[in-house]
Amino acid sequence: MEPVIGILALQGDVREHAAILERARARARPVRRPAELAEVDGLVLPGGESTTMSRLLETFELLEPLRERIAGGMPTYGSCAGMILLAREVLDGRPDQRQLDGLDVVVRRNAFGRQVDSFEAELDFAGIEGGPLHAVFIRAPWVEKAADGVEILAQTAVTGDETARIVAIRQGPVLATAFHPELTGDERVHRFFVRMVHRTT
Ligand SMILES: NC(=O)CC[C@H](N)C(=O)O
After folding, report:
1. Rounded CA gap, 124 and 192, in Å?
2. How far is CA 67 from CA 34, 73, 115, 176, in A?
């Protein structure tokens, strides 16, 4: 059976995720209401603007139901702004930014922006085969600190700062990438997530 995977559809690149999830053998559903959230086996939090998205989560009365489902073990994948929302703590965030507490990490918002706003890189991604992944970063965060138990799946450095920064992680059923795999037509990250959803259904 193909799992039903929701995409939080308050803002951001929802359609791109839906298309790639369907190719990765899942049934994609937009999620805007608590009743829709209750029906999915897993959820994607797309890229966009994390501060706007956190405000919309409150307006649409999704913040608490979403926190509860994540705490209850629902497989969740956050890309870029989604990674920021899932983190326990955000550096350079806005004061009213709300967190979903799905990942025991500290992320820095717009972190690469001090060097370059957007860039692309080839990444080795632990658990994904078939060669390096072409990754697109747009005003991306990085993971500044990760607790024990958080698996580091990919890292990258940028010109002008040779420090390898953490850009993909997993903690139990929660996956996050600082980049946008939905924009490159490579469905391997979504397949990786669909496999995570299968393991819990
Ligand atoms: N492409 C993205 O999702 C950018 C994230 C954005 N900089 C934020 O703070 O939410």
Report:
1. 14
2. 11, 10, 33, 16
pLDDT band for 173, please (50, 70, 90 cuts).
Answer: very high
Question: What pTM does this model have?
Answer: 0.96
List, in sequence order, every residue forming a beta bridge with 7; answer none if it has no partner. 30, 44
Residues with CB under 6 A from ligand 1: 47-50, 80-81, 84, 109-110, 138-139
What domains are defined for the chain? 4-200 (3.40.50.880)
Looking at residue 1, what is its pLDDT? Answer: 87
Q: Taking every pair of C-alpha atoms in the chain, what is the biggest distance, in angstroms?
A: 47
CA–centroid distance, residue 107 to ligand 1 (Å)? 12
d(CA 13, CA 11): 7
- Angle ∠(93,172,45) on CA atoms, nearest 5: 45
ipTM (interface pTM): 0.94
Which residues are known to be catalytic? 80, 180, 182
With 0-12 / 13-18 / 19 or more C-beta atoms within 10 angstroms meaning exposed / middle / buried, residue 169 is buried
For residue 176, give the nearest of 57, 52, 49, 43 by alpha carbon. 43
Average of per-residue pLDDT values in the chain: 95
